[in-house]
Amino acid sequence: MPLRCVVLDDYPHVATELADWSPVEATVEVVSLREHLGDEDELAAALATADIVVTLRERVAFPASLLARLPRLKLLIASGMRNSVIDYAAARAHGVTVCGTASSSTPPVELTWALLLGLARGIVEEANSLRDGGPWQRTVGADLHGRTLGLLGLGRIGSRVAQVGLAFGMRVTAWSEHLTKERADEAGVQLAASKQELLATADFVSVHLALGDRTRGLLGPAELALLKPTAYLINTSRAAIVDQDALLAALHEGRIAGAGLDVFDSEPLPAGHPLRTAPRLLATPHLGYVSRANYATYYGQAVENIRAYLAGSPVRQLP
Fold it and tell me: 3-104+291-310 with 106-283: one CATH topology?
């Protein structure tokens, strides 16, 4: 009987299309699930007969309680080489090998700019109006050249977002708790004196920080109140960095020009969630790392991980 491999959250149903699974097809049966399973009981039932599980990013948590309910599970593969929602100690205790894959930072950089440009030029509103026979030209776009882009975080993604901003002729400033002037100078951007200064002076603010104790709720009501009424906020990082209720209030009250979001406190976003109908919001369903090249890497290396594990020499082990 072949081993059973379950691929979670294959929303577009491309797991078997974007990678060659033939090297393991003689010994592994691959089943992809398109619907998200957020409940532990649902997950335990769906994965009860799984020997191998492939999960994308941090969409599904694997705490000790779930791992204890998966006695057949031997190999857990997560895309990327960092995952904060897997209990590694519990995995080891249950004899589960955990492996990762490479992941490119290019797609989230590109999506950040898609959201920023879409907001600045009213792309969705104008395209929908044109398609529906509405008014010809409804909005007046915001300029990028000569405006200030404020980056919260100047790491692997933030520094590349900065390069694009500079190419547009923007003034780019950056801040994070441990960001140094030397690092800012290397990226060709200005170090903001404080988070408050960055928020008060930027025309566009983009979040590129890892989620942790220091960054959770970093942008709350007081911080959002510092933004100009003409400013835009983009978050393609982690939802919990921005206070969702405070952002909704700012959008409804028109205290900022708009926001672009790719991350949410609850994913998939429930049908009746207030963010689905919020004004001045351009939102995408967590597409940051979703690109053909990245998915080909994720699933292609998942196959490599399976082959290596079956050969007795696991690769790309986490943590």
Answer: yes
- Quick one: pLDDT at residue 305? 98
Give the active site residue among 147, 208, 286, 304: 286
The class level of CATH for 3-104+291-310 reads: alpha beta
> For this structure, is 82 an active site residue?
no
Residue 149 has pLDDT above 90, yes or no: yes
Beta bridge partners of 281: 259
Where are the domains positioned within the chain? 3-104+291-310, 106-283
Predicted TM-score (pTM) of this structure: 0.94
Residue 238: active-site member: yes
Q: What is the pLDDT of residue 314?
A: 98
Q: What is the pLDDT of residue 100?
A: 98
Mean pLDDT of 178-206: 98
* From 197, 267, 273, 316, the catalytic residue: 267
267 is a catalytic site residue: yes
Q: Which CATH code fits 106-283? A: 3.40.50.720
